[in-house]
Amino acid sequence: MATPTTLSVEDVLRVNGSRRFAAAMAAASPFASLADALLAARRIWLNEVDVNGWLEAFAAHPAIGTTSPSVPKWCKEEQSAALSTATDSTAQELAEWNAKYREKFGFVFMICASGRTTPEVLADLKRRYVNRPIVELEAAAREELKITELRLAKLFSSEPTVPSATAK
Amino acid sequence: MATPTTLSVEDVLRVNGSRRFAAAMAAASPFASLADALLAARRIWLNEVDVNGWLEAFAAHPAIGTTSPSVPKWCKEEQSAALSTATDSTAQELAEWNAKYREKFGFVFMICASGRTTPEVLADLKRRYVNRPIVELEAAAREELKITELRLAKLFSSEPTVPSATAK
User: Fold this and answer.
1) Which residue of the set A14, A20, A61, A151 is catalytic?
2) DSSP-assigned letter for residue A49
3) Is the pLDDT of residue A102 over 90?
């Protein structure tokens, strides 16, 4: 988009499920460029959104590997490499580790899965599972930020009229 | 207590409001000594209690400086230095900063206040207020652990029959 981009709270909620993040990003817009929006997103996400806001954003994601029709289009695209490389046994193992992870940490396993295969995702989940909860919370928030950045880029590269109607 | 001490979930909930922490501590008891209980508390609190459990424990505390009759006896004892040094103006300032803190971080300001005056508590609150939320979450959890340790020591030094009836 060549002109400064105004983002509504609803636009931002497609990108990140935290209402606090969405309100702050909408208030910080219009953005002259994607780069400006990315800088604001990083600052707001890491410095202004509290732990409840982080948990709210995590809760907006389906568990990785989930293939139900209710999973939003962007999630499916982000997980396409993982889904295309999942065998029955790795999909089953991923589901088991997702449940184990949620039991330990209290939120869904967050990973920016773009371009990553199911074995890679599974290896990351197992590696991160041993983390202390506070360490894992920050790791999950960093992954959420990567996802947010990718989605903001998609939002900026889409048609001049932001297609909010197709989001859900 | 000379004999190994068995702690019930209710005993531990007087010390720390996280149900996950209480269940794990009760399961880990009996403890041969206070030192054993303190080691278990530290391991469980930092490694096994998730962020929701931390928030649950924080929520069991009144805001520091609160003098309502519903504040538990232990909280009053822990805050006795702060309460005795509070003037009207510092008490008012503390109340305002408590509200500001809760608005930013989403939980009550946690501090192990034993022996600390109101000006000291206020200075700490202002210093910590600038923290990123994830940094402050861990700082708050470390304060909660100190409070938990002090209360465990009280529990172990009290009468042979743990006086749970006087807790609330």
Assistant:
1) A61
2) -
3) yes
